[in-house]
Design a protein that fits this description.
The radius of gyration is 17 Å and the shape is globular. 38% of the residues lie in helices and 15% in strands. The chain has one domain: Rossmann fold (3-Layer(aba) Sandwich), CATH 3.40.50. By secondary structure, the protein is of the alpha/beta class. It has a seven-stranded mixed beta sheet with strand order 2-1-3-4-6-5-7, with helices on both faces.
């Protein structure tokens, strides 16, 4: 009998704690599938900081390290440099973690072209702590700390991480994807696999930004949250490759 569906071995067989309609589960599966396909589970170390991903160590079969809020790229740098030829190191971070308290670690890891892989989940809100405005919250977006909508004159504009990091000479690969439909899920997996392969090949810093939903803190149903993402998030955060030094090198 042909096997048409199988849980990735790199995922543990436990229920996830994420809210209904949250796309973290999809992204976890894609990361696990890539780890399986590349045959690197025994070499992989994941770094999970504070945020909705704080319990990611329960879901991946590879070794996991808990990092302080925002410090995952710094911890990943230390782990990778300790044994660069043995370990495959990835961080799994939300926008409040990566683009706020952890912005310095993110920028400088990219500037140094650290040979690590970052999975960046951007749902434009602080998910775990109750729905406050995040660095990526859209202009006019209503959150717990911007009840009248984000006022750019007071709070500034959202940070577009891929666009910003693309200006750094060190960063190797930056791509923004989403997981709102089957076609985009396949593209997201391809990007994640490339980011891990870059590390295996010693190419340097790779970051995949996944534009995601947060139905609970957006105050929407899972279905309406996907529609809101398509109509509001994707115009402000266009999908695509923002930097790929490996492609540039291959083209020479």
């Amino acid at each position: 009998m042909a096997v048409v569906f199988e849980k990735p071995h790199a995922l543990t067989d436990v229920p996830m704690h994420y809210c209904p309609g949250c796309t973290h589960g999809i992204i976890h599966r894609l990361v696990a599938e890539v780890i399986d396909e590349l045959g690197i589970e025994g070499r992989t170390i994941g770094i999970a900081p504070v945020g909705c991903s704080v319990m990611a160590y329960d879901y991946f079969n590879c070794d996991m390290i808990e990092a302080a809020h925002g410090r995952a790229p710094a911890v990943a740098t230390g782990v990778k440099r300790a044994d660069p030829d043995k370990h495959i190191v990835f961080t799994y971070q939300g926008d409040g973690d990566l683009a706020s308290i952890g912005m310095a670690e993110t920028v400088h890891a990219a500037a140094r072209n650290e040979n690590i892989t970052i999975i960046f989940v951007n749902n434009a809100i602080y998910g775990m702590t109750g729905g406050q405005m995040a660095p990526t919250s859209l202009p006019g977006q209503v959150t717990q700390t911007s009840p009248y909508g984000r006022d750019v004159n007071h709070c500034g504009y959202p940070i577009r991480v891929c666009e910003m990091l693309s200006e750094l000479e060190g960063a190797t690969y930056l791509e923004r994807v989403t997981v709102n439909n089957v076609a985009n899920i396949r593209k997201a997996k391809k990007a994640i696999k490339k980011a891990f392969q870059n590390q295996i090949d010693g190419k340097g810093f790779s970051l995949v930004e996944v534009v995601s939903t947060c139905p609970t803190n957006w105050g929407l149903t899972p279905k309406d949250a996907l529609t809101w993402l398509e109509e509001n998030m994707l115009p402000y955060y266009p999908l695509g490759v923002y930097k790929d030094k490996t492609a540039e090198e291959d083209a020479k």
